[in-house]
Design goal:
With 103 residues, the protein is an alpha+beta fold. It has a single domain, classed as Rossmann fold (3-Layer(aba) Sandwich). It has two helices and four strands, in the order H-E-E-E-H-E. Strands 1-2-4-3 form a four-stranded mixed beta sheet. The longest helix is centred in the N-terminal third of the chain and has 16 residues. The two termini are 26 Å apart.
Length: 103
């Protein structure tokens, strides 16, 4: 069985294809439905928050999935993206994904 982190990462990559070329820095959410954990417990109506930065190229080859830390948020990551920063959004399309949490 795949770990929840791997499943979330895979589903987050799906956001890449759904997000399109938009450079939306506003918080968005993807609904994952009922999300079953390895323990057997289920997170009902699970949603994952994300933000995108930059533009996806025609080949869809410039995407970077950038997760947060355990209690971090994508809002806290925003200063890492842009010209002259950790990830140059004139070259890369960034999908920053919030961690799963209770809230």
């Amino acid at each position: 069985m795949k770990s929840p982190a791997r499943i979330v990462a895979g589903l987050s990559l799906c956001l890449l294809f759904m997000a399109g070329v938009a450079a939306a820095q506003n918080l968005q959410s993807a609904r994952l439905g009922d999300f079953k954990l390895e323990s057997g417990e289920v997170i009902r109506d699970c949603r994952v928050g994300y933000r995108t930065f930059g533009a996806l190229n025609g080949e869809r080859s410039n995407a970077i999935l950038f997760p947060t830390w355990a209690s971090g948020t994508t809002e806290q990551l925003m200063s890492n993206f842009g010209a002259g920063r950790l990830v140059d959004t004139s070259k890369y399309y960034v999908i920053a994904v919030d961690a799963l949490g209770n809230g």
